[in-house]
Each structure stands twice: as C-alpha cells, then as structure tokens.
Amino acid sequence: MGTIFLQIQRIGSPALGIILPALIFGLSVVLTYLMIRHFTRQEDSRE
Amino acid sequence: MLSFENIVTFSVLDWIWLIAFILLMVIFGAYFYRLGKRSEADFFLAGRGLPWWLPASSVYATHTATDTPIWVGGVVYRYGLAGLWYAFFAAWCAISAFVSTRIFRRSLAYSQAEWQTLRFGGLGAEMIRGWLAGWQVFMNMFILGWVGIAAGKVCNLLFGWPLWIGLVLPTSLGAIYVLTSGYWGVVMADFQQGVIVLLLIFIVSIWGVVAAGGPQEIIAKLMQYNSTAEWIVPSEVQARTTGLIRISDPETGEVYAQNGAPFLMVDSGSEALIARTEEKVHRMITGQPSSESGQAAVLFPTAGDTLVAGYGYQVVWTAGQSGRLVDVAFSTDGGQTWSAVIENHYDGQGWRINPFSFTGWTQGQFPIFWFITMMVIALIGGFGMGTSIDWFTEAQRIQSARTVRDSSYSIWAGSALVLIRNSVWAAAILGFFVLFPHLGRSGDYEMAWYVVGFNYLPIGMVGFFFAGILAIHLSSVSTQLNLGAMYATRDFYHHYVNPRASEQQLVRVGRISTFILLLGSFLFGIIIGEEITQWLIFALWIMMAGVWLPNILQVVWWRFNAWGYLSAWIANLGLSWLVVWILPHFGVIPALPDYLQFWALIVLNALVYLPVTFLTKPENMDHLVSYYVMSRPIGFWGPVKREARRRGLLQKEEEYIRSQIEGDDER
Lengths: 47, 667
Known about the structure:
The complex is a heterodimer of chains A (47) and B (667). By secondary structure, chain A is an all-alpha fold. Chain A contains one helix and no strands. The longest helix of chain A is centred in the middle third of the chain and has 31 residues, at 16-46. Chain A is rod-shaped, with a radius of gyration of 21 Å. The mean pLDDT of chain A is 81. With 667 residues, chain B is of the alpha+beta class. Chain B is built from 26 helices and nine strands. In chain B, strands 2, 3, 4, 6, 8 and 9 form a six-stranded mixed β-sheet that branches. In chain B, strands 1-7-5 form a three-stranded antiparallel β-sheet, covered by helices on one side. Chain B is globular. At the A-B interface, helix 1 of A face helix 1, helix 11, helix 13, helix 17 and helix 18 of B.
C-alpha cells in the first residue's frame, strides 16, 4: 500500500455540504415526480 | 499509508444525505412495479416505448461503474491525457448509432442471442443462440462480481468493512428494484442516478483541480517537476542485492545520467521504510530541477536508498529537454549488464498534458501502433454487433427505444456523455498527480478520484459523495442483473423450455433468474478477489479480439454463415488462452503487447473461420431474404437484395423513397 500524505484539507465553506447536496436532491425529487407523472399519464391514456 | 479510515469521518449530516439518496433511488426504481410485472416485454424492455433520452441516460449511467473511475484514474495517472484514448472505445457508438443500432432495432430481437437466429438459420443458429445466451449469463455474473468487489474494496477502505459486506450489501440494494420492476425500474433509476452522478463528477473534479491550485498551477507544476518512470523492483532479486539506474539516449546510447554509487534492494521491508522512501521520492519529484546547472542526475534511487523487491516505485531523474525521449535501465551486477525499466520514455512531466504523447511506433509505454489499434476497435467496431463488451447492454437499450430514430439518438447521446465524463475525470486526475506524483503502484493511484472526493470535499458532501458512488454502483449492477435474467428467460426458458409460457410465468422466471444471478455474482466476486484489472483485460480480450471481425462480418456480409461464426467463437476461446497466457508462460512466444495480441488473434482466427465459411453452404436464401427485408443491413448484401426485389418485397419501400425524392424535386 503506497504512501499518500493524507492530511484532510476540506476545501470550501461547510455550508456547501448542505447547499449542494440539497440542490441535487431537490432536482432529483422534481425529476422523479415529473417522470412518474409523465408515465402515469401515458398509461392512463393507453387504458 | 493510503487508508480512507484516516480521512473519512461521517458526520450526522453525511449519514442523512446518504440515507436520503438511497431511499430516493431504491423507492423510485421499485415504484414502477405495476408496469414491470405486466409482460416479458415490460420486464425486460419497458414495453419498447421509451423516448430516446431515457435509454441514453441509461447507457451513460450503466457505463459509469465503481471500477470506472479506478480504471480511468489509472490510465490517466500513468499515461497523462493520452490515457484518455484507452477510454475512447466508447466512440464505437458514434458509428453504431447510424449502422448496427438501426439494423438491430429493426430486427425486433430481444437480445443479441435472439438476433443470431434471425440472421442465421438452422442448427448452427440455434447453437449460437444457446452458446451466446449461456456466455452472456456467465459474463453478467462475472461483471457483477468484479463491479461488486470494486464496491467491496471502496467500503473496505472507507469503513474497514470486510470485502464480502461491501460486495453483498450495495448490490442487494439494486436487486430490490430489479426484482420488483424489472427494466422499468432499471431505466428509471438510471435516469435519476445518471443526473446525480454527472453532477457529482463535475463537482469532485472541480474540487480536485482547485486542490491542486487551479489549471494554470497544474500546468506550471507539470512543466517544473522532475522526470519519473514507474518501476516494479523485480521480485526475484536476492536478499540485499545492489543496483544502479541509468538514463540514456535511445538512439545513440549516450548516457545522460547514472548513479555514482549503488542503492540496496531487499526482499522485504517494513511499512515505515516504504513510507520514508516514498516521502523522499515525492521530495525529489517536486524539488527544483537541477538540470538548470546543465548536469543531469538520477535523484532516486541513489546510494543510501533501500528498495523492496516486488514493490512499485517511481524512478526519478532531473528533467531535461522538453520532448526528449530516454531509455531507463537498471543493473544488478555493477553496470556490466542492463535491463530495461522502460524504453522511449518522455523526459520531464510536460508530456502529460499532450494527448498525443506517443512513445514511438512500437516502443515505450504508449506506442503509435497501440493507438491505431484502439482507434480501429473504437470506430470500425461500430459497424458490427458484439464488437464491444458494452454492446450487449446497449442492445437492450436499443430495443427499449420507441422508434429506430430514438434508438439511434439514445446510443449516440449516451456514449457522448461517457466521453465528456472521461475528460472531466482526467482534469481531476492531473490535479491528483500534481499533489501525489510519487505513487508507483497502480493499486494506489487508481484510487485517485476517490481520494480527491473524500479528502477535499466539505463535511456533508462526503455523505453525498458516497451516495453518488452507490448510485454509480446501482446503475451498473441493476443493468447486469436484468440483462442476465433476460438471456436466461428469453433465450433459455421461453425459447427451449416453455415456448407457450404466459406473460405472468415469464415475469416470474425473470425474477427467479435475477435472484440466481445475484447469488452467482457474490460467488464470482469472492473468486475474483482484488485482481480486478487483470481479470477485466482478459475478459475483454477473450470477448473481443478473435470474434471482433466476425462480429462485423455477420452484419455486413451475406455470405458469412452460422458455421463460420460458431467456429470463430470456438477457435477464439482456445487461441486467446494460448496467445495471452499459455504460450508466453512456457516461453514458446514472448509476452506480446496488447495490440499485438489483438492482431495475432484476428489473423489466427481468420485462418479458421474463413475456410469453414467457404467450405459450408450459405444460409438458406428464404431466411436471408426474410432477415434482409426486416432489418435492412448495409454492406455486401447484393444477392439477397436482388432476390428480395425479385420477390417484390422491396417495392413498397422503393416506391415510397421514389415518391419522397420526387416530392423533394417538386418542392
């Protein structure tokens, strides 16, 4: 196992740990909702 | 030492994000249970009704697995930006999107194995279908095993879990929505995972570049660092052997630099010794180059250094002229005889930012012949089916698209995203090299992207990063589980065992097959262990090299028949073992570089399948006409096309085309 001089060097404000994941999670939820609505409507129209 | 246990601390916020993303992905995939259970076509192809962007995101997400950053990180660390050519094979989709993708979609075959019976006829076709289906189920388990063990490795480094927990737990999460919703769950979760992962890759790569000081700083440091060449100290050295290193001109033999006094090699050493040595290597690489004085010198290993046999180091010497190629050699007999560490290797580090930094036609770590071979595989392969190991997963996505046009767009866009992703990764890996240029063992620098993410992202982002790694993993394993189950259900159960099975029976068999594949993958994962790369390369070779050309011929040449194709497969299985492992092992032939293995297998296999093709009858003309009318292949199909026209089977389309052209003229 090689040596990597690992010293934790967290870059950026800790607030980014909330903001960035929240934005991406929110985007995922919205896309999830839109997908479910799209395919539910498609199936309803077929039936 | 490289251990994530030292750097990764999960805060409450990290756990919250991790659990939130896992729930979102798994529940979303399982939500489509109602659609997946309706029929075989739904469970395996989402009813063939998807708009192009869904299979496209699935192509992208599927081909971003836990071992992908390991692999891309490894080749970019070792070869610089030129390493991206290794990952350029995804470009086969750019050609395929307009050739084999369209032909395959028109055939309406569920799987590649089924397509073989449409293209070929009789006993030979049935044998190919059975063989290919069996091979694919095996390969799916195998891929699941190696992707699973890569996840096991990451979990082991992160949390200290035994490998088997990381192998079993994440893959089982993916199995939840594959078992419930089949391909509907796979493709929907892939879309969501693709979005998460693409954003994550951009974020981590930006962090990696920033950590290294930004793009200008990375380039400046690469131009400043001393020269390096990877060297694994021969494991057969005797205890306490002394050694010398020499840097010389490849053409004239002029020695640029050589140790004044020998260094020591031992057959084992403590971790403290290795750590101390590598700290020195780091210092020597990043120190000011002494070539300004005009005197080149070997900086590592030198007198006083102790190297451990079997361990990988970076040999360091002062950076010389930009663009100069050198030979690096070592001697264990005081300089009387020399063995190559590497030939035709670039001086300095500036070559890493040149994607065309090839090391001669046949020599060095990146010869031009290797590049040409990769381009041939990537671009010409798009004319065939099965020319890449990825074809079999793409084939499922192609058939799930709602039209031929949608299938084309999906394959093109999915692979374009893969190539963009690789480039973004490469930027982060260059940043990683600037920070950690001393690593001489692929197992260490292959973890570059993971180290960047866990080392530099802020608290909270670490949990999200791990959720992203899980997303990468789930998208790959869910695809392989569903694909393997499709071959087992469609090509074995439905075709051979119970051709009259009801849709509900087929879905049930699909679920049982998924579960068996899951268990089988755990077994394979344990067998594969940690030697991922070696297994991966051999699996790709055995899949590709000898049958690469037959996979193209079967699409573009009417005369190529089932017996020719079958003989190519059989010959390839034997010949690839011989050429890659057996003959070099017994010293019958030297160990060939990868590109020579490829061409050797192409030629040797052709000596088998071409005579077999010409000595056996062509496929039945009725069968060929039926296939031609359905699939409209391109290439050398003259006799079949003439026969189809003679039977009046092409008139409608030709009249339609004529009317379109005339319509255009009138407009």
